[in-house]
Amino acid sequence: MVLACVLVFCEPGKFEEVLRNVKELQFVKRAFSVLGRCDVVAEIDAPTLEQVGLTVYEIARIDGVTSTETLVETIM
Q1: Residues with Cβ < 8 Å from 40, sequence gap 6 or more?
Q2: Integer Cα distance of 46 and 12 in angstroms
Q3: pLDDT score at 76
Q4: What percent of the chain has pLDDT over 70?
Q5: What distance in Å separates the CA atoms of residue 15 and residue 65, rounded to the nearest whole number?
Q6: Integer Rg of the chain from CA
Q7: What is d(CA 6, CA 61) in angstroms, rounded to the nearest whole number?
Q8: Could you give the CA distance from residue 22 to residue 61 in angstroms, rounded to a whole number?
Q9: What is the pTM of this model?
C-alpha cells in the first residue's frame, strides 16, 4: 500500500463542504480540518502510486478546492 497525506487549500467559507466531499472518496482513510497554512488534511491509503495520484486529482476537482500539496511516505 502507498500512504500519502494531502494538504487541501480551500476557498474562504468552503472547508466544511470540501471536507464532507473528501471523506467520501474511496481511498481516503481519514480527513480533518486544521488551522494553519492549509484547511483540510486527507490521509490516503491506496494500492498504487497511480491510485494516489488519481485520488489527489479527484480532491483537486472538488468545488471549493483551490490547490493541493501531496506528501508521499517513503521507505528508507
Answers
A1: 7, 8, 10, 15, 18, 19, 22, 31, 32, 33, 34
A2: 29
A3: 61
A4: 99
A5: 8
A6: 12
A7: 14
A8: 10
A9: 0.94
- pLDDT at 75 (0 to 100): 79
The full set of domain ranges for the chain reads: 2-72
d(CA 63, CA 19): 11
Q: Which three cell numbers stand for residue 48?
A: 498504487
Q: Looking at the domain that runs over 2-72, which CATH code has it been given?
A: 3.30.70.920
CA-to-CA separations, 24 to 29, 38, 55, 59, 74, in angstroms, rounded: 9, 20, 11, 10, 26
Question: Cell numbers of 58, please?
Answer: 479527484
In three-state secondary structure terms, 17 is: helix
Concatenate the DSSP letters of all residues of 18-67 into one string.
Answer: HHHHHHTSTTEEEEEE-SSS-SEEEEEEESSHHHHHHHHHHHHTSTTEEE
